[in-house]
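Students often ask why we bother encoding 3D structure as a string. The short answer is that it lets us treat folding as translation between two languages. Here is a chain of 544 residues written in the first language.
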Amino acid sequence: MIMVIILSTKSLEVNKSMDKKGFLSFNTVIDNVNDKVLILILMVLIATMIVLLINVRKRYVAEREAREAKKQLEENYIELEEAYKQVKSTQEELAQKYDELKRSEERNKKLAYIDYLTDLPNRISFTEKLDQIMANIQKEEVIAVMYIDLDNFKNINDVLGHSYGDELLIDVTDRMKQVLDQNDYFARFGGDEFMVLTQNIQSTELYEEKIRKIQKVFTYPFVLSMREFFVTTSIGVAFAPKDGKTTQMLVKNVDAAMYSAKAMGKNTYCYYDENINESLMAKIELQSELRNALHNEEFAVFYQAQIDLKCDKIVGFEALVRWIHKEKGLIAPGGFVQVAEETGLIVPIGRWVLFEACKQLKRWEEEGYNDISIAVNLSARQFKDADIVAMVNEAIEETKIDPGKLDLEITESIAIENIEYTIEIIQKLKEIGVKFSLDDFGTGYSSMNYLKHLPVNNLKIDKSFLDRVIEDTSDQQIVSTIITLAQTLDLVVIAEGVESSEQAVFLKKANCNQAQGYLYSKPIPEVEAGKLLKEFKKRNVNCE
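And here it is in the second language, the structure alphabet:
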């Protein structure tokens, strides 16, 4: 625009400077030249300014873009920094979760392979270890597996509670570790059962030393709830490959050996023998038959008279269970009671006997026999059963008998197994009104010291003391002493297993109160027992 104005102005000036002929003067030409130079300079200046303006604008734009880019970079940096923090946090979280997962896997593995209570390898660990060894057993190598089961462990759980049972298992584990070799693989197989796996057995004699060491640690009492308890073991032993070429077969056979040790009376050990399986199968069949017998009411109660030696009259009966087997006929308690005890069937069988005996006593009372009592044996399982007091009370209330005519019998071994528990239960039952007898006295840990603390009414001398009492003066002295000491404790003494008149005469002279045995009557059914009552009643003996 400026340039146009200048050129327009100059054009007017040139027109004015022209002469009449239309030619420019020299001065005019010179001026025109200067003007052109000026215009050129102006144009250059203008161009320069334009360039400068353009450059300024470009610089401004560039600076603005640079600022925006810087800002964007800063924002991107912040975002990257935040993203980095998130990634780092995620990595730390993942690392933490990985560690937790790893610890969880280790815990799960420990739970799967390690016993939570004793920290020993468990059944799975033992089985896998035995699998591995059996798969790589050398030609001449001998492997031994020892199956250890605690005898009567359930009684401790029932009496003291499971926490004390757990404490006992821990103590057993600690004692066992002290006598086992470093190379022995020691595991808890379940419950109160332990396994010991030993490789490279050199001789049976050397291995028996290990068994004896284990048995020795159980000769010392275990202290639970500030009381001492003695625990014994039944041990089965099997050798591979002789007694089993697979893990399953070896475990099966060592289990049979352990149960054979229990059948031998517990607190012993037994090597596997092929005949054991036959015996075990017979035992399993007996268990099945016992269950069916209970369901089919194949049991019967027989009664053995108890005689007052002074008056020679029946003062009571002992109720004894018999099994009327549909094929084998009459089976005495010795043929099934132990299996019933082991399986727990003794509890319902014992309950049935108690109720039947009380019903029979009531029938005799209704017939006019008001001066006789009924004695019922309580097994170890029954006596330790939590419902024992309620069961006895129920039997008395249901049959409406005089509780003072019910005499409950427990063996000496049951009584002293846990003396505090025994006293507690006897006292509770005596509060109902029943009486108590201590059976088989002299066959266990005889001690007049503990006897004076037991709140029993009667003491029954075991038959073994009477077998040779006529010929053996030592037995005579023992029996006489027992009678004298028992009577100083105000106990009624009942002699079991009286089979001869000579024995009866001796017992009378020794002031024994009552007698029971084949001399008077074998165990007989209720009908025959009723006849025996009538027979003795006819004698009408006056004891006054």
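Translate back mentally: The chain has three domains: 2-97, 123-267, 285-534. Keep this in mind for the problem set.
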